[in-house]
Amino acid sequence: MNVNQSAPPVPPFGQPQPVYPGYHQSSYGGQPGSTAPPTPYGAYNGPVPGYQQTPPPGVSRAPPSSEAPPASTAQAPCGQAAYGQFGQGDVQNGPSSTVQMQRFPGSQPFGSVPLAPVVSQPAVLQPYGPPPTSAQVTAQLAGMQISGAVAPTLPPVGLGYGPPTSLGSASGSFPNSGLYGSYPQGQAPPLSQAQGHLGAQPPQRSAPPQASSFTSPASGGPRMPSMTGPLLPGQSFGGPSVSQPNHVSSPPPQTLPPGTQMTGPPGPPPPMHSSQQPGYQLQQNGSFGPARGPQPNYGSPYPGAPTFGSQPGPPQPLPPKRLDPDAIPSPIQVIEDDRNNRGSEPFVTGVRGQVPPLVTTNFLVKDQGNASPRYIRCTSYNIPCTSDMAKQAQVPLAAVIKPLARLPPEEASPYVVDHGESGPLRCNRCKAYMCPFMQFVEGGRRFQCCFCSCINDVPPQYFQHLDHTGKRVDAYDRPELSLGSYEFLATVDYCKNNKFPSPPAFIFMIDVSYNAIRSGLVRLLCEELKSLLDFLPREGGAEESAIRVGFVTYNKVLHFYNVKSSLAQPQMMVVSDVADMFVPLLDGFLVNVSESRAVITSLLDQIPEMFADTRETETVFAPVIQAGMEALKAAECAGKLFLFHTSLPIAEAPGKLKNRDDRKLINTDKEKTLFQPQTGAYQTLAKECVAQGCCVDLFLFPNQYVDVATLSVVPQLTGGSVYKYACFQVENDQERFLSDLRRDVQKLVGFDAVMRVRTSTGIRAVDFFGAFYMSNTTDVELAGLDGDKTVTVEFKHDDRLNEESGALLQCALLYTSCAGQRRLRIHNLALNCCTQLADLYRNCETDTLINYMAKFAYRGVLNSPVKTVRDTLITQCAQILACYRKNCASPSSAGQLILPECMKLLPVYLNCVLKSDVLQPGAEVTTDDRAYVRQLVTSMDVAETNVFFYPRLLPLTKSPIESATEPPAVRASEERLSNGDIYLLENGLNLFLWVGASVQQGVVQSLFSVSSFSQITSGLSVLPVLDNPLSKKVRGLIDSLRAQRSRYMKLIVVKQEDKLEMLFKHFLVEDKSLSGGASYVDFLCHMHKEIRQLLS
Ligand SMILES: [Zn+2]
User: Fold this and answer.
1) Strand locations in 143-235 (E)
2) How many Å apart are CA 354 and CA 974, to the nearest integer?
3) How many whole angstroms from 826 Cα to the centroid of ligand 1?
4) Rounded distance, CA 289 to CA 194, Å?
5) Where are the beta strands (DSSP E) in 482-528?
6) Scanning 45, 210, 265, 413, which has its CA 20 to 30 A from the CA of 464?
């Protein structure tokens, strides 16, 4: 049962170190005592993360012990380390653990629920920044400014940021939005921890009374006593002296007693003199702001405090102020600029270390020797030469790899290279595949490996002369010598059991319990399959798919169907011994669709009738997967199971689960258990599936808690997908479900895959994120891999890198195509290396960084309290930016926030991750929603995480109706909404149409065919098809947005001031969130403070 089919003579992925251990040697990790590897970016040169866990019981079938633990049990279920690689202590990473350990109390509000006091500071920047007359926040090239205006959105004193009191009742009544479709189950009220701090919602867009609106004069926040050390006690908040231009980092003096919380009683609000607010010019990268005049100190809270340094200026009252949202870096602007600057020219990959255009830019790629950014995106295209530099910068070095990415029609799929019986040419030592970076020497008779420097003989049949530059004269005739991406046909040595694989099979496994029948799911699905089976994936010009199909229905027992073409009617075989699952028939179970069409159609007609009167409500789950996997094993093929499942599997069987949902665990140390599987049985099962090349796609239709965290284990570890349709009703949800199903069934999949990432000397892959399984530290095993899934790989130094030679990555994916062909897909990428940190910061990609950081955090919640995870992210971000400030930016006042151009969106995007449902859930978000999103993000590519964390908000009536292009987006903030307009908001999973209360009657009529705003049905999910330009435009735009995403987004129409608006506002990510997430402005100020603390 070795999933890796490496043949002894030429182990395809053989490295010096690992031979694939049999599965009996390793488990999935969940066993107690399993060791978690060190943090990905904590210890450079630390030990390699171990994916090996302690041995499993050695039982291949689901063990009887799969009985769920008591729901109330405090101890982690045995599967808790399933995702392994993130030990609790490992979250405490960072270059300086002391920073982590000494979390400043002042930073806590951002990492925990009691947030309001900090984010409510209207002038968060102020207390830490220099005094108003010269306070300056400079975003590099961003013209970031501080306006003198009082924050119009600030709530009055005493009002928290909590949900309106109506939230509790509203939360249960949101329509089924898909992701947030909530159940009528008792929704927990807002977190108890939060209630102490959350109050009524601040009045929307109404300016509070100015001077009285601040709970505190932003007293500077508590600091660790040590932070005050270098400064004179009692120093006031003053900027650095003008005589100290290089003094980047004086911490504001601290007079608060240690431990003082910002949640303490507010001090007197400082008088407001907005006229004192100077305007600030746009600051170029690292440039100084205007010369600083005398700096008033912060005044009132600490009377008598001496001014900072030699500043003669008398203390002046400081007017509260906020950052002008228009002056802080705008995601919309950055996206727009990149489109304008880089969208017109193709991205040619011939140059090493080029940063590609943003994922939000449409561009064509020309492969000239490096893999397209559609296949690989990196956090930085210029890697520090030494691990010391890397540690200093704290910028994670990671690649988000999508090996089977779909390409636009204008770009060619990778060429397939056939080296005949000898197979692909590889380095003898490190087994890297022939690629454009290999150096041919000795007249072409040998080549030097670009990864390990080994000199290899060129086989006679591959020999070619070199030109005067040392290049083979046939270099441009051979994809493997001239392109970044290509495929090799694999020889039999790369096949399991030294046998070419059979074509894969699809098995449809349909829950026919009461819920599935009643909702109309079974009838809908059976009807759809009749036609969908004609569209199974095929390759090239094949007339017919090679994929065979089989059918199973189940509730507490399983029903197998014989659909052999020679039968007049399908035959059913029932297996009720679910504890010892076997497949009762081989011949006639997996069939060719066209041969057995009549029998299959008859079966699909009969299934809904057969179970129409069922009263069976209980289901099993693990035995269903077991059965599918056994069937593939018997047929000696890889394949995919499509499971359609409705409920928590409580029937007596292996993998039986209990309802252990408990919202009271949120914000406790036990919260992580909500994300962990409640039994190890599914990991054991997944391991068997991977060995068989059995990928599992799960479609869930829950009416209540189904324990997504546990049910998604097998899909997650087999490279499968999970779809969730809460409270599924045919009339409301069929379009979404059918659209997802069609796409899922039709997409090309690589089966029984193994991926290995090789690197040139000096760095190595140390950590991996995604939907896959690993039984050793280097090989990513994927029962299935489709074109939507990414594998994220983190690299660390193990030696010094060389500026001249750069660094190389080679990703090799061995897989079985849908037609049953064994292939290797190779992607190569060359990166630059630098000895100056500035080069690193100039060549970073923030979208990819965020993708990595989100995945890192989302894995972290399996083992650590979410607050710890959030704090880790904040610390890391601050360290990244502080390192830039210290080493790369021109010296300037510490009062200036200076962001590297490539990372100026890091704070806003990171804040979106921090307040996402996984890390800071709102009251309406269920445990299953969080587990679902958590596993979705794990496999997302960079474009998906970009829009998921920062949704697109498109105004619809501003641009001309005739315009064929998408309207320019606006920032995701309520301030940007005009009540006379309508907007589409999408994040890849959700789609809203927000209608302003004052929208013109003509617009209402054109879109909704009703005469007034009040007649629009809130929660509508389909727009009427009307024959007018606006209706056509909006519906066309919706279709276009859906086509861009890998999952169908169900539309929800939201009216301004309607209760549904709450749901919509959840996605206005620049604003404060109801669950306590900071606004962009507040977070930026907080980040500034953190940076200053690090610099001081
Ligand atoms: Zn080599």
Assistant:
1) 146-147
2) 37
3) 15
4) 40
5) 485-489, 505-511
6) 413
